[in-house]
Structure formats: C-alpha cells, structure tokens
Design a protein that fits this description.
Elements lengths: L6 H6 L1 H22 L3 E3 L2 E3 L4 E2 L15 H12 L4 E8 L11 E2 L6 H13 L4 E6 L26
Parallel strand pairs: 3-4, 4-5, 4-6
Antiparallel strand pairs: 1-2
The chain binds flavin mononucleotide.
C-alpha cells in the first residue's frame, strides 16, 4: 500500500512523523554524546566541546576598554554553558583596529577590565580565550585615536 502513496501523502501520515522523531532523536543522542563530553586542550579543561567562534561584537569603548556591555555580553555566553568562548579580535596596537568598538589589548591599563571579563566568565563556569590581532591592511585609519598612528603624508592604504 505504501508503495502506491505519493511523497506528499506519505508525509501526511503518522508514519512519516514517527520516522522523523526516531531519526531526529537518534542523531541528537549521537551529537550529545560528543558535544557534551568533557575535553581539554593541553592543560585547559573544558566542560564540553562547544566553542564560540571568534566574532566581533562591538562591546569595547572607543579606545577598546572593557565596558559593562562587554561583561554582560560574554557573561550571557558563559551562562549558555559554551565550553570555550573566543573573544572577537582584540587589537594589540592602536594602529591595528579594524572595526569600531573592538576590544583592545595594547596597554597595561586595560588589564583591569580584561581581568573583570575573565572573572565574569569564570564565575559562570565558562572559559575564555582572547583572539589577539593587528588588522594590518584591514586596519581603519578613521578609527585611530593615538597621535602618530595616522599614515605619513603621501602614503595611502591599499584599496
Ligand atoms: C560580524 C562578524 C564578525 C566576525 N568577527 C571575527 C573576529 O573577530 N575574528 C575572527 O577570527 N572571525 C570573525 N568572524 C568570522 C566568524 O567567527 C566565523 O568564522 C565566520 O562567520 C564563519 O562561520 P561559519 O563557518 O559558521 O559560517 C566574524 C564574522 C562576522 C559575521
């Protein structure tokens, strides 16, 4: 009888629904088995294998210092029980910023805010790693705020 049903008719039957649930839950079990297992990267122990990819989120202030918004943003990610959070780009020199409100990691005065950030994540049971970058040709001179960071006269950024 099933041989003679069209695909549409089959999908309307409870049999199709049952098949979807069984297949779905089987995959979910297989995924859970790997994803929610503890793991480690050398000495860094992670409660599961989910990693938040490094993604700009614009939560620094104009000079890249950690803001309350940054604490809230990364704290929320940690509450979601992600095994490892990679921050978005943190520029290591003031002439290396590519996007507005990136976090910076170019001066010791930023350590206090960055420590608060890691403490916030650790309090929620999470782990966090900084992505350190200089955006090189992708740095945006319009965002430079330190004297001397602008290009010398006559030099242009490649377009
Ligand atoms: C708005 C935005 C900001 C991103 N910022 C960063 C970043 O700071 N560092 C980085 O390595 N990748 C960054 N990426 C790349 C993402 O982390 C990710 O690798 C990319 O979106 C590809 O993911 P997918 O393979 O799941 O599509 C960014 C992507 C987007 C869309």
């Amino acid at each position: 009888m099933i041989d003679t049903l069209s695909r549409r008719e089959f999908l309307k039957t409870g049999l199709a629904a049952t098949a979807a649930v069984v297949v779905g839950s089987k995959f979910a079990r297989a995924d859970n088995h790997l994803l929610f297992e503890k793991t480690s990267i050398r000495s860094l122990e992670l409660s599961n294998r989910a990693i938040r990819s490094s993604t700009w989120s614009g939560v620094g202030d104009q000079k890249g210092y950690v803001t309350d918004r940054a604490l809230e943003f990364y704290g929320e990610l940690a509450k979601g029980e992600i095994g490892l959070i990679l921050t978005g780009y943190q520029y290591v020199m003031t002439n290396g910023q590519g996007l507005p409100y990136m976090l910076g990691n170019y001066d010791d005065t930023q350590a206090e805010g960055l420590k608060k950030l890691t403490d916030t994540v650790h309090r929620e049971g999470g782990k966090i790693a900084a992505q350190l970058v200089h955006c090189l040709a992708r740095a945006n001179p319009k965002l430079f705020f330190r004297e001397g960071d602008e290009l010398k006269k006559g030099l242009r950024f490649p377009s």
